[in-house]
Design goal:
By secondary structure, the chain is an alpha+beta fold. The protein contains 12 helices and 15 strands. The N and C termini lie far apart (about 135 Å).
């Protein structure tokens, strides 16, 4: 139980268990007997400062005698705490693991009942094409009404008549010309306004027709999605190196990643909670004073454990020893990150090294973890749970290493698995007539080393998970001409059936869009040509009027000059 000696300021416990939130019958870790002394003076300021902790019996992933489940507390608004960033990442990675488990490469059916398969799939492209046709009908109907009943046609006809009413032959004097030029300028102003309106209508018309046409271009993608979903239901895998790598090593490597992420999530939850909580400082009004706060000599965090010396063992009996420094409730006050280094080995020289840093001193929280588990025997074990590699090993040693870097909500991680000095025990499989397994055995029989890696990152965008190994291409070559051929044949059957199912609807929708678009474009071009002809007439009439005005002004100028000459006797 928990102990606290008020006089000696000594604290300790015999056992501490921290429940795994994903499996409440397991502990994330537990400790044995732990002792430490608390500094006296900080207690007066309600601060707990511990210089050294001696922690023994440290173990990870231990079973519980009782269920450690408890209700997640509600926040101040009465809502349960939302899933963390780490929970979302773990969910995505777990989904990838489940996807790997569903991959089947060696049990492809040659006699797929495509009719039954499509009944299970529920073809969606037909409904999408019906929706596209309905939306297109609404768009075309709206534009048909706009073109047939557009007031611009009447307005351009009206101002053209106004321009036609100006008789150039009736204009005999400059004042008459000036008056008619003013009139045509008013008409031109109205024409310019109508020109802008017709340009806006044209732009909207082109946009709506382009969107309807884009919907037609999506039909092939919808059909392809139906084909792909049918292939998924039929358990037809994509035969490529990435998927082979996922099937061979994805479950183990990505499962290990999820475990490491759980520990980082715990550190982030409790270690970085103070980041970004400070309120913005209000700017003082002009001419008013400002309060300055000076640093407190005893400005300690509420909890600061400066050093933890721990010892314990893993569930595989590797003896561990190491230290964790500067565990605190507020790193901004201690000025140092939490650093840990734990290592050890067992009697067979199987070793484990784990080190890292939890840094919450910057704007974004940063966690770095490196772990290496090396020297473990692979004898009488399997390299992979996949049906592609169902063979035990008679010899071999393994090494598993992980590097995980998290900055804010960006993850950049690598989990690597290396197996050396391998000898496969094919046993009775040597006499198996399975042609695929025969090809696989030939491909790997001379393999003494396997190197597999899982890369998990979202540095450049959405989470990417890649699993590759030096076996991928060997398996890919072995499956070519066998499984690949069968998969392609089955996919061809599905493609043909799906396309036959939807072809009539595709032709119906495509022909409808082509026909209505052509009709509307013809009507619009007729309207546009008519409007442009009227606007051009007005522009031409303006030019003629200005020319007439200029001629009359020149004529009046010449007459005035002649009259002056006569008066002075020239």
């Amino acid at each position: 139980g928990f102990r606290f000696d008020l006089f000696d300021l000594n604290m300790g416990w015999d056992r501490l268990q921290v429940t795994n939130p994903n499996n409440t019958m397991m502990n994330t870790f537990e400790t044995g007997k732990t002792e430490f002394d608390v500094e006296f003076w900080p207690l007066l300021w309600q601060k707990v400062i511990v210089n050294n902790v001696q922690l023994t019996g440290f173990e990870m992933d231990t079973e519980r005698e009782t269920d450690g489940y408890f209700e997640i507390p509600l926040d101040e608004e009465g809502k349960a705490e939302e899933p963390s960033f780490f929970a979302e990442i773990t969910k995505q990675v777990t989904g990838k693991v489940a996807e790997n488990a569903r991959m089947e490469f060696t049990d492809i059916k040659n006699d797929i009942n495509v009719d039954s398969l499509l009944a299970m799939v529920n073809i969606q492209s037909v409904d999408k094409m019906d929706s596209l046709k309905t939306a297109s009908q609404q768009t075309y109907g709206r534009w048909e009404d706009t073109i047939n009943n557009n007031p611009i046609e009447d307005r351009t006809a009206t101002i053209k008549k106004q321009a036609e009413s100006i008789d150039l032959k009736a204009i005999k004097t400059v004042p008459q010309a000036v008056e008619q030029v003013k009139k045509i300028q008013t008409i031109v102003k109205e024409a310019d306004s109508l020109k802008k309106e017709i340009e806006t209508i044209k732009s909207n018309f082109q946009t709506d027709l382009s969107q309807a046409r884009a919907g037609v271009s999506n039909i092939d993608n919808w059909i392809q999605s139906d084909i792909q979903r049918a292939a998924t239901v039929a358990k037809l895998p994509e035969i490529n190196a990435q998927n082979i790598g996922n099937a061979l090593f994805g479950n183990d490597l990505l499962g290990d990643f999820s475990v490491y992420l759980e520990y980082i999530a715990i550190a982030r939850k409790y270690g970085s909670r103070v980041i970004g909580t400070e309120e913005e400082e209000d700017k003082p009004e002009r001419y008013e004073g400002k309060n300055y706060s000076f640093s407190d000599k005893y400005d300690w965090p509420a909890l600061w454990i400066k050093n933890v010396n721990l010892s314990g063992k893993t569930n595989t009996d590797i003896s561990l020893a190491g230290a964790v420094t500067n565990i605190s409730s507020d790193q901004m006050k201690t000025g140092v990150p939490t650093v840990f280094n734990v290592s050890g080995e067992d009697a067979n020289a199987i070793s484990l090294v784990v080190d890292g840093e939890f840094n919450y001193l910057e704007e974004k929280p940063r966690e770095t973890v490196k772990a290496t588990y090396a020297g473990f025997s692979l004898k009488n074990s399997r390299l992979s749970p996949s049906e592609l590699l169902p063979y035990d090993l008679s010899e071999g040693t393994g090494q598993l290493s992980a590097t995980i870097n998290v900055l804010g909500k960006r993850i950049d991680s690598e989990i690597r698995y290396v197996a050396n000095d391998l000898e496969f025990d094919f046993g009775q499989a040597e006499n198996s007539g399975d042609r695929i397994q025969t090809l696989i055995r030939r491909a790997i029989s001379g393999t003494e080393k396997i190197n597999a890696a899982a890369l998990i990152d979202n540095v450049d965008g959405p989470l990417k998970v890649k699993v590759r190994s030096n076996l991928d291409d060997l398996f890919l070559d072995a499956l070519k001409g066998t499984v690949t051929e069968e998969v392609n044949k089955a996919k061809a059957q599905i493609r043909t059936k799906v396309e036959n199912e939807v072809e009539a609807k595709r032709e119906e929708v495509t022909e409808f869009v082509d026909q209505k678009e052509a009709e509307l474009r013809a009507k619009y071009e007729e309207l546009e040509a008519q409007v442009n002809e009227r606007l051009k007439y007005i522009e031409d009439k303006k030019a003629e009027l200005e020319k007439k005005k200029k001629e009359l002004e020149e004529e009046a100028k010449n007459k005035a000059a002649d009259a002056i000459k006569k008066k002075i006797g020239f």
